[in-house]
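Bug #77: duplicate submission created two jobs. Keeping one. Sequence:
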Amino acid sequence: MSKGKLFVLGALLLAAGVATLPALAARPNEEPEVIVEDHHDFSRPLRDIEPPNKQTNPPREIPLGRPHPGPGAIDQVDPVVQKTPTASSPAALSGSGFDGVGVGFTGPNGTFTVDAAPPDTNGAVGDTQYVQWVNESFAVFDKTTGVALKGPVPGGALWQGFGGGCETNNDGDPIVQYDKAAHRWIFTQFSVSTTPYLQCVAVSTTSDATGSYARYAFSMPSFPDYPKLGVWPDAYYITFNMFNGSSFAGPRVCALERDKMLAGFAARAVCFQLSTSFASLLPSDLDGATAPPAGAPNYLLSLGTNALRFWRFHVDWTNPASSTLTATPASIAVAAYTRACGGGACVPQRGTKNKLDSLGDRLMYRLAYRNFGTYETLVVNHSVAAANSSSGTTGVRWYELRNAATQTLASANPVVYQQGTYSPDSNYRWMASAAMDKAGNVAVGYSVSGNNIYPAIRYAGREASEPSSTLGKLGPETSIIEGAGAQLQPLNRWGDYSAIALDPSDDCTFWYTNEYLKSTGKWNWSTRIASFKFASCIP
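Kept job's structure:
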């Protein structure tokens, strides 16, 4: 979430003068709800929009809605933890790296001032540009030179002249994506300081992120926390954790009418509300040039207990009432794990007793899908305890799921093709994002911290030819940037997410962004953007 908006859960919502709405019916698999957008229009080119003067507000840490749908397994032995030190010659080739939006970042539109934590760092790569969006601003970069073409720009500036909460409330929880098939950018954040609660979505009219946008506002029945977006051929799929005050009301999943939004026409959303038995779903997000099999539904995952829960969402735009969501999610058994820090904060930093939040209670963005023609894959990760204790060292648990033999993901539940927990030493690894290139190589970017090091940004990978379920065998863990400071109290939030994306120009180059600190303090986070690829992936 962004800063400046009093926390929308519990009594603080009332203190902000925002009325809570009646509780959502926390019933799973009810009939689909069809929503017509509140409003849509076209923006002026972003390059011509002068952002308003940024308001000065006291810096503050934003609490996070914690669904906690059950305690999960605790203090179990992790049978797939990888403790082998990495060695050998690098398999990945380093690419460019440059600072993103953070303390002191200066671009064509001025200098950024941090006044919120966490940054919600995420970004996407297009044909010629890279866009990064953090709380509460974004910037557009030339991906070849790293030069900022636009920014830092408050997120709300994209909705200048749109009216309503999308224009006036720069509330954050941002996601930026690139629709590789259509060569368009998608920007989305929520508006929750006033009612109606809105999800604000802007789709570029060209591949130039500094151009014009078709802009949309969709009403939400309650507070839509932690939205996550996936690009799919038939829709833009988005998931939320819904809250009424401090009460978790279950996750919500919506399909946004992609074809209409690409054309700038009036658009609909089809949504399902799930029960409080589930939380923090991720929608599948398409990587690569090969689309899913014709008519394939979107796939959704969330954490279970030593399992992943799996749904299929098929949207029918001809008859939206016929849209379907799996009545009962499949349970895909995975190797036993304990949630990192029990789902809370335990990550140490050098020089301070302040512990950082693991967000070990949920899968981490993205759920990366790829169709190789002869098989389909899903790659995802979460943070787990790697020392067989909820308070021990944390590692990155990653999975590659594939379709069962002779069947598609649309017709049969996926199987675990490989899985592992990356924890090669006594440091803590968490806040990761994982993806796969067109050669089948996997890369995982993440934060790493410990009693003797400051929070840093690193990545590890595996080539398709390596032994199953291992990272870093052919190439060691690689540092993107080592932090030079610790985050001090009262801040313990970190993330809340990071993002790895595949470059559509070659489908080989990974782009990763996350946060770090240049000096010990608070309200002084920076971000880094880096690209790299494997030698075995040939453009």
